[in-house]
Protein: Entericidin A/B family lipoprotein
Amino acid sequence: MTRKTFTALAALSMMVLSACETVKGAGRDMQIAGEAVEGTARDAQY
Structure:
């Protein structure tokens, strides 16, 4: 494998891995927001 090919593959791998972490973080944020809405709805019932 040439040096340029290796560098390109390494850069692509880093981008893919960082994108996965971004999506994972967004999922956590949505889960926390959903729990907050659920708690507010629960409080409104009583």
User: Anything to note?
Assistant: The CA atoms of residues 33 and 39 lie 10 Å apart. The mean pLDDT is 83. Residues 21-46 form one domain.
